[in-house]
Structure formats: C-alpha cells, structure tokens
Design goal:
The structure holds two protein chains of two kinds. Chain A is built from 15 helices and 13 strands. By secondary structure, chain A is α+β, with helices and mostly antiparallel strands. Chain A folds into two domains: 222 residues, Cytochrome Bc1 Complex, Chain A, domain 1; 181 residues, Metalloenzyme, LuxS/M16 peptidase-like (Cytochrome Bc1 Complex, Chain A, domain 1). In chain A, the strands form three sheets. Chain A has a six-stranded mixed sheet, sandwiched between helices. Chain A has a five-stranded mixed sheet with strand order 9-13-10-12-11, with helices on both faces. In chain B, the strands form four sheets. Chain B has a seven-stranded mixed sheet, sandwiched between helices. Chain B is globular. Classes of the chains: A alpha+beta, B alpha+beta.
Chain lengths: 429, 425
C-alpha cells in the first residue's frame, strides 16, 4: 500500500509524505528553493557542503561519519538541483528502514535530527561559519567545477546551454563558477546562509514506511528553530521564449577523440499551457526511446553514432538533442536529425512508433514509482513546477496521446543553437 | 521449485535447476508493479582463449561485447525494438567475466520474457549486420577513449597484472573488432551460451512455476560442455608495474590505487573474503577512518574518493580511487596508515560501527531489482549464495580484517595509475 499526503508543516515549509512499505531503505530530502542567479549560485552550492562538515554535537567529519555508521550506514549528503530557473539546495538522506534493525534504534528520528542539526546548528566561530570548513569546501567545489569536463557528454550539453541561454538565468551553472566561488568569505557565506534559510520556500519529500504524523513530528522537532518569514522569495522561469538567432552555430575545442553534436531547441507555444503527457510521448517518438526515430535511423540505420537522444527540460521549455559522432560526420548527423524532426512535424508517425513511444513513457514512469529516489524525484519535480497531476494519472494520459498531438508539439519546436565539441587544431595540441 | 526464506534480509527465493543445467532464481516482490528479468552467461571480455574438445581457440579482443550487441538481431528484426515496442525497457552489458541481457516492464511480462529467452538463445548474424555494427561499436570505443574513468581503470589493470586479459578493454579496439566475422560470433555463442553456462533471475510479482515452465519450453534441452578458459601464464604475487601516468583533458588529477589479491579464491571463502577485504578498506581509508578525515581536511581527497574489492574472472583486487591535487601524497599517507594499522590493530569501537554500517549497505544491495539480479548471477557463477550475505558478514572478526591488512595491503602488491590534466588551454 502506498499513500501520498502533502501538508504545510510550518510557514512555507511543505512536506510531501509518500508512505510505503516497499523499500528496505527510505529517502528524505530537505530543499531550499531560490531563484537561480549569478550572484548566489556559488554560495548556494557551497553552503550545504559546509553545513555537512560539522555541528555542535558532531563537530568534525570523523564524528559525523561515526554517527552515520551507528545509524546502520545512513547517508546524508548536500544536494544541489537546477529546476528551470530555480536552484534547489539542501540535504538528502538515505536510511535503512526501522523494520530491519533492532527495536528502539529509531533511525528515522535520529537521521532527521542530525539533518536538522546540520541546517540549524553548524560549527561557528564568532558567529561565522568556520573559516576552515569554508575554505576547504571552496577548494572542493572548485575541483568539482574543474572536473565537470571529464564527462564530455554532459559537458557538451552545458556548453550548448551556456550559449543558447546566455541572456537568461538558465545559463548560470548550478555549481557557480571558479571565480565566484573563490570570492566567497566566511562573512558573505554566513550572511547568505541566514538569508536563505529564513527567506526561501522549503520543500521536504519523504519516501519510506513512516506515517505522515511520525515524519511530521520528527521534522518539527528537528526544525523548530528554523527562522521563517511570512513571504518566501518568489521563483519563476521564462519557459516560452523565441530563438534570437535560429540555427546559431557555436564550436568549442578540446582534446577529444570523438566529436559531440548538441542541439538546443525551444518548445515554443507548446509551453503556454503544457500538456506534459503529450510532451513526453513526443520526446519518446523523436529521440527519447530505443524505438525513436533518432535511435532507429541515426544509430541503427546509418550507424553514425553510438548514441543520439533527445531530452525535454520541462522546467525550462527546451529540448536538447545530444550525440557522439566522428568529426567528419557532423554535417551528415545534423542533416539526419533535422530530417527526423521534420518527419514528426509533418505527421509521419507510424502506429508502431506512436504505440511504442507511449508504452515506453508509461513503463519508465511506473518503474520510477518502484524506487525510493525515483518517487522522490517525481514528487519533487511536481512540487517545484506546481504540477498537480500524479504520476499514475500522467501514465493514463500518456496512453491516450494521439499522433496529431505529437506532431503539433513538433511543429512548435524551433531550432535555437547548434553546438560542436570538436578536436583541437594542430596548432592547439 | 525449492523455496528458501532469508529473514535477515527479508527475502524469499525460489530456485530450480533444469535438466539442461540452467539455474533459475525467482525473487517474489509483492506490492511492486515492476517486473525484472535478467539472463546472464558466464562469459566476458577476458574469456578470449578457451578449449573446445582438445583444441585451444584464440579469439580477438572484444568478441563478448560485440556478441552482446548482435544478439538483439533476430531473423524477423530486432529484439531491442520488439521489447521496447511491447512496453519493456531492455538493455545489456558485458563485463570482463559476464554478459547479461535484461528488461523491466509493467505489463505483458510473459510475452517479454519469451522474447528475452528466445533472442539470447537463438543467434542470427549476417556479414552485413556485422559490418554495420563495426561502425556503431567503433563509435562506442571512440566515446570510451574520451572517458578518463575507463582509461584509468585499464591502466591500473595493466599495472597489477602481467598476463591476465583483464588488462585489455572489454570492447576491444577498432583494429581487433575489425577481425570479427559472423562465424566468430556463431562459434563463441555455441561455446558460451548454452544453459548450463548461464543463470536466469526474475524479480517481481510473478508466478515462479510459470517462469520455469516457459524456460523449459523455449530453451534447448541439451547440456553444453563447460568451456575451460586460459587467462594467461600464472600471475606473480607482485604487480607488473608500480606506476602508470598519462595526461588527458581532465579538470583534476585522478588516481586509482590497486592491491593485487593473491591467487584464485572461489565459493563461500570468496564471499567471506569480500567482506573481510571491504572492511579492511573501510578501516584503513573509509569515510569514518582517521585517514579519510585527515586527507579530506588537508584537501588531498574529496567526495569522489571511494574503495572497492572487485572479483573478476579468477582474480580479485582492492581499489581505492579519487581525485587529488597530489596523488603521490595520498599514496604515501595510505602506505603509512596501513603500516600503523598493521602494527596497532583496528580500534574496536570503529570496527563494530563499520560492521553496522556495512549491514546497512548489504541490505541496500537487496533493495533494487537490478542489483539483486546482478548479485545473484555473480554469486552463482562464483559458487556462493548471495542471500547469505548478512551471515557471511557477521562471521567476519576483527582479527580476520587485521590479518588481511597485514598480508595483502603491502607495497609489492600495490600499484597506482594517475591521469593528470594536460597543461594546455
């Protein structure tokens, strides 16, 4: 049995409690939501990494780790998600269900209490977050920023978005930039900390066997000192924008063996009143599934690449196509991707393609309901985007999407930016 | 079918061995709508030289992985598309010692299950389809060549092993896969894809008897021969080379430190050794060890740091990996800590906490359908019962772990691979 309940437990603090006995380990996230901006992204990214370092009762890493070990290897980590132009930072805990450990361990209460301590009772010196932890986590954050380029697929997507959305908050990287991180001081971070925990909307998502009243009581106990203003900072995203320079081509060079072709599109008018079920099915028909036009043609028929897929960022109203191809095949791959999108636009969708796409959307939705982190992700997405449709309802709606609806979405798609990640010229090696 | 209940991890398992030698495991999961089927063969990238009858056969690098791609082709089309069109999410992977095909679905499990059993057991290759796949896999190799995580792993394997084919990439090279023909694929399928060399695991709300019935109907009735494999000359206890370093376009230096575990451990002894070795790594360098705190505070490691005991083919090794501005400093601090723990032993408070934390980790391993299947198949191929995990863990003593550290985490068994950033803009 699974029940989903949503309740405002403090001013601007909402708890979504998904009670289920399916899992051996539960999952809980506490998220502070604020507008994504150049001025605060790095501080947001840094803050919970610093708070995770030590509390009044557990002042250093060794004592925190020892505490987590004694909670049967519970883990608490800083999280940082970008949902459209909202930045959502906080803590996530993965905890063994109390039914698998001796009675009285109260892993749920103890883990939530430790999360509360990290948020509200960090180690301070003279009222400021400890300089030692701030500096050490600044260095780690800068390392993380530098290491992003190790994953060439995601790095290429990041580079594309930075060009495509350069005048929008969406282009701000969720980790901030090296220079913005290096400018942070214990003073500026402490000031930001106080501002963020008092002024932002808080979304808490819990998945596990605990009842709403048990989880609520544990949270109220742990967060009783959380400062709350009457009004939370408003967070909005421009999701209906027109490309400024349609087909703008951007090239970046790196020391790579394989090229990455990444294309950004705007979903246009489809985002005026988004039909999420139809958007998902469109994506699966075009490039999101193994039966999609991109997979079947760009990979299987032409063997141009190992992967060519599309994803939809519903929080921002854009679609991204990404693929890895030989440098010499960029033009061929771009042509084929464009041809396949045109085919969807003109309604060339077979029954098999539509039916397969719908099933793929339904299966992936329902499968996510069978994992604790999958459930968290869906309900967190819904909370941020203020979507009231449950995943079960969405699955039913997806099953009823028509070819006309799919092709209507494709017709509204507008090409924005084409990004090439290619090898260095001979003089640059 | 035989039913066995495992209370410590809250699971029950049905097992059956068919007359063709196939072992079937069914793990019922009430309350889940997802169903998961996993069909694996005890054959991977390292199984390149093997004996059929009296003849030793050598195959190019990358055949097992190539075969994995091509198995989805059927006489009537493509099973990947067929399964997806039927609402399943299918996939497959090849490691150095296993190839597995799996899908998850919500509806039409029975139909999808039949497709799985059938496409894995009935090969269909043509020279044209092999040629086309050389293009796709060539791109996959190009992609992985750009992934520092792959590169550093194989660099470490080359440092640890002198002869074992674990040294080489599972996918092979563009040149080696160029030598693969449809005949190579048919031959290797015949040798390694008979039911007695495979394991089948199903997780979800299914009828165990129906699973067995379907498997009997679809799979061949005959037993195959267990193919004897050759993993090269006997490995020395020491490493092949203590260091490897190369430059790539990465943001931060990456390191991977390995310790070569001696000899060939199998069965229940291996299951216990896995926990002994993992606890040894946790005690020396895990997140609640004094060394970890020190290295983290000094900025020598970050959250990417992790440890693992890995068993592949007939070999095992301990791996510690991460990112660091100064990998050599990490290695020397680690060496020093190992000496200290070897001499003074492990703090008993730390040891009992580590065991508690590890209990949580083992339980988590039985939380997701894919990790249950992977663990079951691995355990079966290596000769132990995956569901006895908690008992095996509980049998480990502090003394076992201290002895492991003293005997196995020694300098002559240790190697480090490093990938440093290219100093260009």
């Amino acid at each position: 049995m699974q029940t989903v309940k949503k309740k405002t437990i403090m001013p601007n603090v909402d708890l979504t409690c998904i009670t289920t006995d399916k899992f051996k380990a539960g999952y809980i996230t506490i998220n502070f939501i604020s507008p994504l901006s150049k001025a605060t992204a790095a501080k947001n990214a840094l803050l919970f990494r610093v708070l995770r370092r030590g509390t009044l009762n557990y002042p250093d890493m060794e004592s925190i780790s020892a505490r987590l070990d004694s909670l049967y290897g519970a883990s608490i980590e800083a999280i940082n998600r970008k949902k459209g132009e909202a930045q959502c930072v906080g803590l996530a805990a993965d905890l063994i269900d109390d039914s698998f450990v001796p009675v009285g361990e109260n892993i749920l209460e103890n883990t939530i209490a430790l999360m509360g301590e990290m948020i509200l009772a960090p180690v301070t010196h003279g009222g400021l977050l400890t300089a030692e932890y701030v500096e050490s986590e600044k260095a780690n954050l800068i390392d993380s920023i530098k290491s992003q380029k190790n994953d060439k697929i995601n790095y290429a997507v990041d580079l594309m978005i930075r060009s495509m959305c350069q005048d929008e908050a969406y282009s701000v990287p969720r980790l901030g930039t090296e220079s913005s991180v290096s400018q942070i001081t214990p003073q500026s971070l402490t000031k930001h900390y106080k501002e963020l925990i008092a002024g932002s909307k808080v979304e808490i998502i819990y998945v596990g066997s605990g009842s709403l009243s048990r989880v609520e009581a544990a949270l109220l106990n742990a967060l009783s000192a959380l400062p709350r203003r009457n009004e939370a900072t408003l967070v909005t995203t421009d999701i209906v924008l027109t490309p400024k320079k349609p087909g703008n081509e951007v090239t970046d060079r790196m020391d790579v063996n394989q090229g990455k072709l990444t294309i950004g599109y705007r979903l246009g008018k489809s985002m005026l009143s988004p039909n999420y079920a139809a958007l998902s099915v469109f994506n699966a028909v075009f490039g999101g599934a193994v039966t999609s036009k991109l997979f079947m043609n760009v990979r299987e028929k032409l063997s141009l690449c190992y992967y060519a897929s599309s994803i939809i960022e519903k929080h921002k109203g854009i679609m991204i196509v990404y693929s890895g191809v030989d440098f010499g095949n960029f033009a061929k791959a771009l042509d084929e991707i464009t041809r396949q999108l045109d085919a969807v636009k003109s309604g060339e969708i077979t029954d098999w393609e539509l039916d397969s796409a719908k099933k793929s959307v339904v299966t992936s939705l329902k499968s996510r309901l069978d994992s604790a982190s999958g459930l968290e992700d869906i309900y967190f997405d819904n909370a941020v985007a203020d979507i009231a449709v449950s995943p079960e309802e969405l699955a039913v709606l997806a099953g009823a999407v028509t070819a006309q609806e799919v092709s209507a979405i494709a017709s509204n798609v507008e090409l924005d930016t084409i990004h090439y990640l290619t090898e260095k010229g001979d003089d640059q090696k | 079918m035989k039913l066995k209940k495992y209370e410590a991890i809250g699971e029950e398992v049905y097992t059956e061995t068919l007359s063709n030698g196939l072992n079937i495991f069914v793990v019922p999961k009430k309350g889940f709508s997802k169903k998961y089927a996993f069909f694996a063969t005890n054959y991977g990238g390292a199984d390149r030289r093997f004996k059929v009858g009296d003849t030793w056969i050598d195959t190019p690098e990358g055949v097992a992985h190539f075969l994995e791609h091509k198995m989805f082709d059927t006489k009537d089309g493509n099973a990947l598309a067929e399964l997806s069109a039927n609402g399943a999410s299918p996939n497959a992977f090849t490691s150095s010692d296993m190839t597995a095909y799996y899908f998850q679905c919500i509806d039409k499990f029975e139909e999808n299950f039949k497709i799985l059993l059938s496409f894995v057991s009935v090969p269909y290759f043509t020279p044209e389809s092999v040629a086309k796949e050389q293009g796709i896999i060539g791109q996959e190799i190009g992609m992985t060549d750009d992934q520092p995580g792959y590169s550093i792993y194989y660099s470490l394997m080359k440092c640890l092993y002198s002869y074992n084919p674990l040294r080489d990439s599972v996918a092979g090279t563009v040149e080696s896969i160029g030598q693969i023909t449809d005949k190579t694929l048919y031959d290797c399928h015949k040798v390694f894809y008979h039911p007695s060399n495979m394991a089948l695991c199903v997780v979800g709300n299914v009828d165990p008897d129906e699973i067995v019935k379907t498997a009997r109907e679809i799979l061949p009735d005959t037993r195959g021969q267990y193919p004897e494999r050759d993993y090269g000359s006997t490995e020395p206890d020491g490493v092949s080379s203590p260091r490897f370093e190369r430059a790539m376009d990465v943001g931060m230096p990456m390191f991977m430190i390995g310790f070569k575990h001696p000899g060939d451990t199998q069965g229940e002894a291996l299951q216990k050794t896995t926990y002994v070795a993992n606890l040894a790594l946790e005690a020396v360098a895990g997140s609640s060890s004094p060394l970890y705190s020190r290295l983290y505070s000094d900025g020598l490691i970050n959250k990417q740091f992790g440890t693992e005991f890995e068993t592949v083919t007939n070999r095992s090794h301990c791996v510690l990996s991460g990112e660091s501005r100064d990998p050599e400093a990490v290695l020397s601090a680690l060496t020093e800590e190992i000496l200290k723990v070897s001499k003074n032993g492990i703090d008993s408070g730390l040891f009992s906490r580590l065991k508690k934390a590890y209990t949580g980790l083992v339980l988590r391993n039985f939380n997701s359908f894919d990790s249950i299947c992977y663990n079951v198949a691995t355990a079966y191929f290596k000769g132990y019962d995956a569901f006895q995990a908690i008992d095996a863990l509980n049998s480990v003593t502090k003394n076992d772990v201290e002895e492991y550290i003293r005997e196995n985490l020694t300098p002559e068994k240790c190697a480090m691979a490093v990938i440093s950033p290219k100093n260009s803009q």
